[in-house]
Amino acid sequence: MGFLAPWFLAGLAAVGLPVWLHLLRKHKATPVPFSSLMFFERRTQSSIKHRRLRYLILFALRALLFALLAVAFAHPYLPRTLLAVSRSGEVTILAIDNSLSMRAAALLEKAKTLAKSEVAGLHPGQRAQVLAFASRVEVLSEVTGDRTALDAAIDALEPSDGRTSFAELSRSLGSIAQSLHLPLRVLLYSDMQQTGMPANFNDLRLNGDIRLEPDPLVSQQTPNFAVENVVAPRRVYSGAKTRVLATIAGFGTAKAVRNASLVLNGRVIQSKSVTVPESGRAAVEFNSLEVPYGRNQGAVKIDSADALPADDTFYFSVERADPRHALFIHDASNTRDLLYFKTALEASGQSAFAIDPAVADQTANVALSQYAFVVISDVGSLPVSFEKSLREYVRDGGAVLIALGHSSMGRAKVPVADFAIQGTRYAGREGDLFQSAATLDPSHPSIRQNNRWEGVKFYQAIRVDPGSARTVARLTDETPLLMDEQLGAGHILVFASTLDNVANDFPVHSSFVPFIGQTANYLGRLDAGPSAVTVGSFEELRDAGQKAAAVDVLDPKGERVFSLAEAATAQNIQFTMDGFYDIRRPNGRNELVAVNADRRESDLTPATPETLRLWQNTASGSAVSGQAGGERSRLSLWWYVMLAVLVCALAESWLGNRHLSVDKEAP
């Protein structure tokens, strides 16, 4: 038996009141006339008689009354286990969390042991199914009553590097309930990470006849250190030492000193000690990374020696290569556009491209295959053979940026793109007759991170008919300013003004530098993404024109991800484990992708019991009990005690009145 308010048991001290009434109160005797006592011997009268209890039954009733009142206010209860209500055709779902955090303190093995004990307790005719879940749900067995098959499914469950998603589990359980058309009893084995709960509680709603019984494997936060993030360049183009910045985080930890090491291709480059504050973060900087040519595997490690060593290493990839060449074609009388373009490219921090200038007359015998992209800046005419080669270059996956100016007005069409040139719109620099970029498409790579060209004045723009091409930017008068047309596997980007600060003042504005940098990355197909991605993310594997070409992907274990048939058709890949993926694309571009587990898994704080009870309440078949971990309840004894108090009070009143009447009749 238990008590909800045990402090009220101090009221049992009131039981002393009946003792005082029956034993310690002063004895009073009725005076009786008597003759002289002078011949009696003086002696001390004994008081033993006066200390004897009188009316023992009445005394017991009064003591019991006070004791019952104290117990009633303490709210006694009996814990009890509710017997599972058998529902017709009910299927038991054994949902086991195999996310990264379940590696802490061997929680996954504990969950598998509990699940197997549940399988052993299945009654004849009962059926069950085994599920594993992290960021997605995996069905490990059919709905069956075969204990051997269920045990085999549990034994086959392996830990993953995914992040816990209780919302995804809820959606999957709802789908299973709808497909089976049967009630479900879901036994959930998990560390119940708080970070696995969705931001919107409605995403946890269980649709269908589901009875959820979560089994939290931990009740309090487990201290854990982790390498939370690493900032490193994805590509370098020189032999200079490179800077790497790492963040070390502590979750529920005391202040401590950790040793962090920078590793490249399995060799420790540099080690530093870092002080991590209580449940805080600390940064550590390495400035000694010298990257050799080729693709390299980097990592930052700590010696945390905590319950979850899987997050003590953060991987990153870095590639050393020579700059790629880009061809810049300009008019012989104008070098300002070349100067502005090269300066902006250098200012953007983009050292991946080396610009090779050329005038139109020098392009007849140029081998375009050696260039990452081509820029044609306000050129009136080009050799016919070069235009033909340029078109084939684009069809094969190349890219061209064409800037139009007054020299372009002598042409009927834009080179390569074949956009019809309709005229020009010109405004003098005096007054407010200039145009501005009124509409920008922020989803286009050229302006994705710089989608506001404030203050840029356009004095001259060439009017062209973009046809079916994508219009990325328009001027105030709706004149198309930036257009993107796909030709075969390549792209043609047309800028309806110049790059030389004559037809506009764009080159003297701060927005010009990121525009040139991002455009160069886009045209040169240079992915400027991070040096590492998260488990569960996707990446494109091929262009639209490469459907028949095979792609080869090796996972961190060195195993091929795709079969031969899948390698010829796969459009993208989802990274499912941490480590390095080696991607070999059909266009010859090979890539080493570093993948890390989501560091939200490093916070081992469990969800509160109140949250779990609310989750249970979202299902129509759920019967929430006093504890979140199982079907346990409390049987309150308060009414029973109060009934005993009433009976005892009536008996005491009746017996007390009877003794009182006897005392009055005594002589």
Structural class, from secondary structure content?
alpha/beta
| End-to-end CA span | 51 Å
Which percent band covers the strand fraction?
Answer: 25-35%
- Largest sheet descriptor: 8 strands, mixed
Per CATH, which architecture of the largest domain? 3-Layer(aba) Sandwich
Number of self-contained structural domains: 5
* Order of neighbouring strands in the sheet with most strands: 17-16-18-19-25-24-23-21
CATH topology of the largest domain: Rossmann fold
Word description of this protein:
This protein has 667 residues and is an alpha/beta fold. Helix content is 21%, strand content 29%. The chain is built from eleven helices and 32 strands. The chain has an eight-stranded mixed sheet with strand order 17-16-18-19-25-24-23-21, with helices on both faces. Helix 2 runs antiparallel to helix 11. The longest helix is centred in the C-terminal third of the chain and has 28 residues. The chain is elongated and about 155 Å long. The relative contact order is 0.12.
Summarize this entry quickly.
Helices cover 21% and strands 29% of the residues.
Write the layout of secondary structure elements.
Layout: E1 2-3, H1 16-24, H2 56-73, E2 76-81, E3 91-97, H3 107-120, E4 127-133, E5 137-139, H4 147-155, H5 166-180, E6 184-190, E7 210-216, E8 224-231, E9 235-236, E10 242-251, E11 256-264, E12 267-276, E13 281-289, E14 294-302, E15 313-320, E16 324-330, H6 336-347, E17 353-359, E18 371-377, H7 384-395, E19 399-403, E20 420-426, E21 437-440, E22 460-465, E23 470-475, E24 480-487, E25 490-495, H8 512-523, E26 533-534, E27 538-540, E28 552-554, H9 564-567, E29 572-574, E30 579-584, E31 590-596, H10 609-617, E32 632-636, H11 638-665
Parallel strand pairs: 3-4, 3-6, 6-7, 9-15, 16-17, 16-18, 18-19, 19-25, 26-31
Antiparallel strand pairs: 1-2, 2-32, 4-5, 8-10, 10-13, 11-12, 11-14, 14-15, 20-22, 21-23, 23-24, 24-25, 27-29, 28-30, 30-31
Helix pairs in contact: 1-2, 2-11, 3-4, 6-8
